[in-house]
Amino acid sequence: MDIRRLEAFAKVFESRSFSRAAKELYLSQPTISSHVALLEEELGVLLFDRVGRSVLPTQAAEILYGRSQSIFHLLHIAHAEIDLLRHTVSGPIILGGSTIPADYVLPPLLATFVRRYPDVRIDLRVGDTDSVVEMVRRGDVMMAMVGSAADIRDLVFEPVLVDDPVLIGTQEQMQEITGSEDDLTILSKLIWVMREPGSGTRQALESALKSRGLGIHDLQIAIQVQNTQAMLGCVLAGLGVSVTSRMIVEPYVQRNEIQALSLPALAMTRSFYLVHHKKRELFPATRELRTFLTNALASGVHSKF
């Protein structure tokens, strides 16, 4: 039901006149008449009886007018809430995060942000980098933090954190690795725990291997997992070695549960990005969160995690 037709009907109902309704709505009388006629056609009933110069509402009009007031009231509330949303840091933020940001980087930062802005409600949706970027492209999330950038029309990727991926494994597994800058043959002899194809971590590994004339197909993959926690569990269980962010394995290294090694011959660097759709309007809460995350990560807050 067209809201403009409903507004024209309501004004005719209140004024009992098509001409007065036209003046109040700054429309022509034929336009008002057309709106009401189309509404009557849509509903299949007459809304007004024309008795001489009088316009009398029918019983159907009485029902429609009563319900229309509830509709107009809800629209008024919606307008007021949206106006508030445009000018205050409040309301919902639908945020995406690939697994490392969602599990390790974002939680402490979001805790600080929500304490600062208690009227904000965050819906954090998690997936691998490719799936989260697709959420942004489709408009399912307003903004996201992911592990790699992509050349996708209308998406803006802003680098906010540089990461140092490392090779990890148990002490027994890591004893097999020479760390020689020129010898990469050991990598093909190791048993690997591999992240899924959409993972930013895997993309960083693939890029590093490609620069040395190797590929994922050159590695012996025992198991492929869908998230960082599963990968860490498999490595701890001795299933194989893997690659992940240095910052998330530091606690395991300190407890001597995992060993981490940077391979000079397989220099890996990656960045994490905030991504949003440039054609979507970011309301104040989302804009404030973007600024907050950018400043916090630039100041090295992540190094405390």
- The assigned CATH architecture of the largest domain is 3-Layer(aba) Sandwich
What is the CATH class name of the largest domain?
Alpha Beta
- How many H/I helices? 12
**Major sheet:** 5 strands, mixed
The shape is: elongated
What level of helicity do the residues show? 40-55%
Descriptors for this entry?
12 helices, D-Maltodextrin-Binding Protein, domain 2, alpha/beta, single chain, 12 strands, five-stranded mixed beta sheet, 305 residues, elongated, 48% helix, 22% strand
Plain-language structure description:
This protein has helices spanning 3-15, 18-25, 29-43, 59-87, 99-116, 129-138, 171-174, 185-189, 200-211, 228-236, 246-254, 284-298, and strands at 48-51, 54-57, 91-98, 120-127, 143-146, 155-163, 165-169, 191-195, 220-225, 242-245, 259-261, 270-277. With 305 residues, the chain is an alpha/beta fold. It has three domains: 3-87, Winged helix-like DNA-binding domain superfamily/Winged helix DNA-binding domain (Arc Repressor Mutant, subunit A, Orthogonal Bundle), CATH 1.10.10; 91-162 and 272-304, D-Maltodextrin-Binding Protein, domain 2, CATH 3.40.190.10; 165-268, 3-Layer(aba) Sandwich (D-Maltodextrin-Binding Protein, domain 2). The longest helix is centred in the first third of the chain and has 29 residues, at 59-87. The mean pLDDT is 86.
In short:
With 305 residues, the chain is α/β, with parallel strands linked by helices.
Secondary structure layout plus pairing:
Layout lengths: L2 H13 L2 H8 L3 H15 L4 E4 L2 E4 L1 H29 L3 E8 H18 L3 E8 L1 H10 L4 E4 L8 E9 L1 E5 L1 H4 L10 H5 L1 E5 L4 H12 L8 E6 L2 H9 L5 E4 H9 L4 E3 L8 E8 L6 H15 L7
Parallel strand pairs: 3-4, 3-5, 8-9
Antiparallel strand pairs: 1-2, 5-12, 6-12, 7-10, 7-11
